[in-house]
Amino acid sequence: MIFREYFSAYYRTVGKLLEALQTGTPTEKELQAIVRRYAFEESAAVILPALKQGQWQLMKEDLTTPIRHTPAMPLTLLEKRWLKAVSLDPRVRLFDFSVEGLEDVEPLFTPQDFRVFDRYGDGDPYEDETYRRHFRTALEAVKTGKPLFIRMKGRKGNDVCAVCMPYKLEYSEKDDKFRLLTRGNRYVTTLNLAKLAECRFHEGVWQNRRGRERREQYAVVLEIHDRRNAMERVMFHFAHFKKQAEKIGREKYRLTLWCDKEDDMELAIRILSFGPMVKVLEPAPMVDLIRKKLIMQKNCGLI
Predict the structure, then answer these.
(1) Per residue in 191-213, pLDDT tens?
(2) What secondary structure does DSSP assign to 191-235, as a single string?
(3) Hey, which residues does 246 pair with through a beta bridge?
(4) Where are the alpha helices (DSSP H) in the chain?
(5) How far, in Å, CA of 121 to CA of 172, rounded?
(6) Contact assessment for residue 17 and residue 51, using Cβ atoms and an 8 Å cutoff
(7) Phi and psi at residue 104, to the nearest 5°
(8) Who has greater pLDDT, 20 or 41?
(9) Quick one: angle between helices 44-52 and 9-23, nearest 10?
(10) Is the whole-model pTM more than 0.70?
């Protein structure tokens, strides 16, 4: 583990509680709010009783603390090296990520240490300043609920302008691209950020108040032969999907994934990366897509 246990959410939460007790006289309700903010919803039922009852001898029943010094959790050298390595990823620089204090730290690894397979080579231009500006504008719009004015080139080369309400940014691992999901304009629903010529906040009045557009989803059923640790690798690879798994044999599982219709091609590529260990059972369109890609690979001499 790169990060030690005492840097976890519980330790951080207890530190915040002690800091509040040292700087003021918070009520139990206010302490519960701190727990919910820095830990988990159910953590208040564990952390506060343990502190009040003396199980963790850091707080008294009268909501005071014998601790004199404010808790501090400085980073270890290993953690600093890991953070420095993460900071070298150009995608990280799209966010408000500071490397202050890490200037003289040697990274734990560099992007040159990795070779990525099954990824398209025309990913988004993360180093481009215009792209970064558009990304940050879109991200703020998603967080604040502000409408955007966007301009991009249409299929015929003409300028296409639209006002829309963004609600989600998603990243495609296979395409190495960020996409912006919007509502309020039926002609503009999914946008590739790299194709935007202009992206700024809409200065006028936003009239459309419809709810979030629902992307069409469907279930893909896979049969997994658990050889070479295939089941664990599949579950890890598709960790961000809604899914359901059941064991149907000694080394055989059935896995159902719920996927967006727009991601058919990417999903097919990801399934094919597991080779003969994974078989698509349904739906028929996905089975046909897998079959076509295998035929194309065979014709190219790849299999």
Answers:
(1) 899 999 999 999 877 665 454 45
(2) EEGGGEEEEEE--S-------PPPPPEEEEEEEEE--TTHHHHHH
(3) 254
(4) 9-23, 28-38, 44-52, 77-87, 129-144, 230-237, 264-272, 284-299
(5) 13
(6) yes
(7) -100, 10
(8) 20
(9) 50
(10) no
